[in-house]
Each structure stands twice: as C-alpha cells, then as structure tokens.
C-alpha cells in the first residue's frame, strides 16, 4: 500500500479499535487434533447455511447495539480534532517514512586465485639406517616350504571343491531336466484328460439337447394328433348340423324347385283365380 500524495485530500480518520488477538475467532486455541475437518467433496446443507447467516446477522446486530450503548469520546469542538498520543514512559518519535541515507564505498579489484600448493605431510621421527648381511634374517628355501605347502594345499582343496561343485551342479541340472520332462509329460496328460473330459461334457450336453428336442417334438406331435382327433370328433357332427341349419334357413336350395316355387306356382295360382273368376262371372250372367 503506497502513501497518498501530499496534495490529496486527507480521508476521514476512523477511530482505532484495539482488541486482544486471543479473542479473535480466526485464532485456533488448544489441541487441533479434535477439530472437525469438513471434507471438500461434501455439499453444505442449504438450511444450515441459512441458519448460520441468520446467527451471524443477529451477532452483528447485538455488537452494533452494544457499541452504540458504550460511552464514546465526545466530538471535538469546531477547529479542533482528536489525535492519538503516547502514554508510555519513554516517548518515541513516530514517523510514516523511515529515514534513508545514501552511502558509497569502493572495493579493490578481484585478483586471480593462486594455484593450490601440493600437499606434503610434515616429517616426523628420526631417520635410522642398519646393515643386514645375506643369511642373517632367514633362509628363503627353508622358510618358504610351509608357505608353499599351505598355498598348494589351499589350491588343491579349492580345485576339489570346484570340481565337486561342478559335479553337484551337473546332478542338479540333470534332476531339473528330468523333473521338467516329467512335469511336461504330466501337464500334457492333464491337458489330454481335460480335453477328453471337455469332449465328454460337450457330447453329453449335445445328447441331452438332442434328447430334449426329440421329447419336445414327440410332445408337439402328440398334442397335434390329439388336437386333430378332437377336432375331427368335434366337427363330425358339427358340419352336418351346420349344413342342415343353412339348408333350413334357405341358403342351400334346388334351383328348379326354387324357380317353381317363386315363378311357376304364383303364375299358376293367378291364372286359376282368373279362370275361376271368369267362370263365376259367366254363371252370374246366365243366371
């Protein structure tokens, strides 16, 4: 935050409110292991949020009412203003800007680093010389025999151990090859048996399906035969009765008989009636 320019208007000074940091709600006091940490993934309840907002509003309203009820310093008279003064025992000058002073200095130019000298350890003790003639300390041919015996013995023992290890490894490899061959043979036999069992199961399932299909066809054939026999027995008397009813109703008739009944008989009756009427009229005229 920068300082305002000198020609800018001075903002209104607000009263400084001092408070104890330990009463701030944002400061955590006590053991933090018992804090209830709300996971990020949980969704807050709308009712709980509304309740918290109303509680904060009520607390803020009570705080404002309490501040209004507290006694405040009366307003300054015209032409004066309230300022903050120090009441400590030792006064200290308060300034908005720290005093700054420019100072210059000159350093020497950097010199090349000299090469690192070779490390030579410091000499300790005293130099002493002595003379040893040939044969004074030991005889090489005599003293070397036990060393050669130990070296040759160790060499032979190591060679024997290596030969025995090679033979053991060869036996192990032979056992491994025999075990691998036996295992492969057993696996092949197991696969053959599994394949045979699979074929038996498939053949069994196929036979079962074939038998079920045959039984289903036999059942369907039996049902069809029974239905056909029932239909024949049911329709044996139905067809004649239907034809009789249709014949009685006039749907089935003899064309000649029907022509005689509808055409010839009415004409014959009409002619007979006319003849009878003429005869009756002639008799009436004679009478």
TrEMBL record:
Signal peptide: none
UniProt xrefs under InterPro entries: Radial_spoke_3
Subcellular localization: Cytoplasm, Cytoskeleton, Flagellum axoneme
Gene Ontology CC terms, in alphabetical order: cilium
Keywords: Cell projection, Cilium, Coiled coil, Cytoplasm, Cytoskeleton, Flagellum, Phosphoprotein
Coiled-coil regions, chain positions: 183-221
Chief location bin: cytoplasm
Family: Belongs to the flagellar radial spoke RSP3 family.
Protein name: Radial spoke head protein 3
Annotated source species: Aptenodytes forsteri
């Amino acid at each position: 935050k920068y300082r305002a320019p000198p020609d800018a208007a001075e903002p209104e000074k607000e009263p400084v409110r001092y408070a104890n940091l330990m009463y701030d709600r944002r400061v955590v006091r006590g053991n933090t292991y018992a804090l209830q940490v709300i996971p990020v993934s949980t969704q807050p309840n709308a009712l709980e949020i509304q309740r918290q907002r109303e509680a904060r509003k009520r607390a803020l309203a009570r705080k404002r009412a309490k501040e209004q009820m507290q006694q405040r310093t009366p307003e300054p008279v015209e032409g004066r203003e309230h300022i903050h003064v120090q009441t400590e025992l030792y006064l200290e000058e308060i300034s908005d800007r720290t005093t700054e002073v420019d100072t210059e200095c000159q350093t020497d130019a950097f010199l090349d680093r000299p090469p690192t000298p070779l490390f030579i350890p410091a000499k300790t003790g005293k130099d002493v010389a002595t003379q040893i003639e040939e044969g004074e300390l030991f005889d090489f041919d005599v003293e070397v025999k036990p060393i050669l015996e130990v070296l040759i013995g160790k060499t032979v023992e190591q060679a024997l151990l290596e030969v025995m290890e090679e033979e053991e490894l060869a036996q192990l490899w032979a056992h491994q090859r025999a075990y691998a061959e036996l295992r492969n043979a057993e696996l092949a036999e197991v696969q053959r048996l599994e394949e045979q069992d699979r074929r038996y199961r498939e053949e069994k399932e196929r036979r079962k399906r074939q038998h079920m299909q045959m039984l289903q066809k036999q059942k369907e054939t039996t049902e069809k035969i029974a239905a056909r026999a029932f239909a024949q027995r049911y329709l044996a008397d139905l067809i004649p009765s239907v034809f009789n009813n249709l014949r009685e109703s006039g749907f089935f008739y003899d064309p000649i008989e029907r022509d005689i009944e509808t055409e010839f008989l009415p004409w014959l009756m009409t002619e007979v009636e006319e003849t009878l009427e003429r005869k009756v009229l002639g008799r009436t005229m004679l009478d």
